[in-house]
């Protein structure tokens, strides 16, 4: 057992920087290798991600049993220096993100982009992917607002490369939209940092938690709204969500999967940290409830209208971000626990769905449901791998999607009031419409007969549909199914382990709302 290992707390604190530094080091080595030694590159990538996952699990166990771990970078103590803080929240999402990125890395290697799709060579894809992973870890562990900005920029620098692989017109157009959005949010982030530092004289999260209490309400509200606007853009909250469905579907399948699973969750993580640590129970909570309500409904209505699987999943991604913000906006331990549980669930399930969509595209050459059909018979494994996480996303009992929604519904009803109850109702409607969207996709792509089999019966002509005949299927490498099946199994494991996982999220939410453990761990006697 990890708890029985004779590891001192000082060593554990030193390990907190490993999830950030190790991927960056591996990216540098892979860039130096270039396109040579491809087998070594693959082993280096998988070894790096596996070690990062192992360290993340160790940090989670240590943080859960002994409180937050603090690593002071450069030997400078907080709040003068920048520190990494591994508490329950940061290590929990770090473990999930490390597991997900490991599976995506294995998938990308099995997909053999360097040999089969020359638009994503291993010599470029893997370093960019590792830089993005390092940025995600830095954002999760950051105990300083400026270092949080650095983490965002680091992950964005890697994502720019991944999004525009191949230089096709669609990817360049999507990359331009994504880049403009990212640059705008980064400029706003810098403005927010300047306002925060001018008002408080610090950017340390722990010190800000104590100094914001002494600020005038108008100044505190200005800082909170500016930071929330930044993170709302990155999390794709309504009305700043239009960029996402136009950007994500054009990228290679591994990049799209990790974008959908992780990048928006970094924005959600920042909102959770911001509202729990710096602005607990503030007046903006009501605004967040309205934003959550609009995000859920607009996103799922967009999903219902789509005929492409990638775009449908992109819109459901937007709508389900609303569930997480719903829990945060309640400003209660129960609501926060539900939000954290849903973040863990959604990272895994959404990533697995996009990877399965990549399998469909590789198998058939398309993700348009108007051109698909008969996949249940032609590719039963893909059918199962899609059906299970799709039902999980929809919230079918007793899967983790249902359990997360149940936690949020109970928290909303316990909070009471017209707006929380309206959010509960919107959450139920969103869940039903999500089920309708994925069931429609399943019926058309998997269950109905192929276009050729439907000829002579009830079938639309090409003039009616505007679509070409169904693309001839190709053989799918068996190695691609392994990492996807692992992610689907992980999503199911959340149901089996729902008791321990929900208990962990409750402890995490309690620590967040209490705030004192975080502040004391970082500042100690320097408060």
From TrEMBL:
<dbReference type="Pfam" id="PF00361">
    <property type="entry name" value="Proton_antipo_M"/>
</dbReference>
<comment type="similarity">
    <text>Belongs to the CPA3 antiporters (TC 2.A.63) subunit D family.</text>
</comment>
<feature type="transmembrane region" description="Helical">
    <location>
        <begin position="312"/>
        <end position="333"/>
    </location>
</feature>
<feature type="transmembrane region" description="Helical">
    <location>
        <begin position="339"/>
        <end position="360"/>
    </location>
</feature>
<keyword id="KW-1003">Cell membrane</keyword>
<feature type="transmembrane region" description="Helical">
    <location>
        <begin position="219"/>
        <end position="239"/>
    </location>
</feature>
<dbReference type="InterPro" id="IPR003918">
    <property type="entry name" value="NADH_UbQ_OxRdtase"/>
</dbReference>
<feature type="transmembrane region" description="Helical">
    <location>
        <begin position="43"/>
        <end position="63"/>
    </location>
</feature>
<feature type="transmembrane region" description="Helical">
    <location>
        <begin position="122"/>
        <end position="140"/>
    </location>
</feature>
<keyword id="KW-0472">Membrane</keyword>
<feature type="transmembrane region" description="Helical">
    <location>
        <begin position="381"/>
        <end position="399"/>
    </location>
</feature>
<feature type="transmembrane region" description="Helical">
    <location>
        <begin position="146"/>
        <end position="166"/>
    </location>
</feature>
<keyword id="KW-1133">Transmembrane helix</keyword>
<protein>
    <submittedName>
        <fullName>Na+/H+ antiporter subunit D</fullName>
    </submittedName>
</protein>
<feature type="transmembrane region" description="Helical">
    <location>
        <begin position="178"/>
        <end position="199"/>
    </location>
</feature>
<feature type="transmembrane region" description="Helical">
    <location>
        <begin position="419"/>
        <end position="439"/>
    </location>
</feature>
<feature type="transmembrane region" description="Helical">
    <location>
        <begin position="284"/>
        <end position="305"/>
    </location>
</feature>
<dbReference type="InterPro" id="IPR050586">
    <property type="entry name" value="CPA3_Na-H_Antiporter_D"/>
</dbReference>
<dbReference type="InterPro" id="IPR001750">
    <property type="entry name" value="ND/Mrp_TM"/>
</dbReference>
<feature type="transmembrane region" description="Helical">
    <location>
        <begin position="89"/>
        <end position="110"/>
    </location>
</feature>
<feature type="transmembrane region" description="Helical">
    <location>
        <begin position="12"/>
        <end position="31"/>
    </location>
</feature>
<feature type="domain" description="NADH:quinone oxidoreductase/Mrp antiporter transmembrane">
    <location>
        <begin position="142"/>
        <end position="433"/>
    </location>
</feature>
<feature type="transmembrane region" description="Helical">
    <location>
        <begin position="251"/>
        <end position="272"/>
    </location>
</feature>
<keyword id="KW-0812">Transmembrane</keyword>
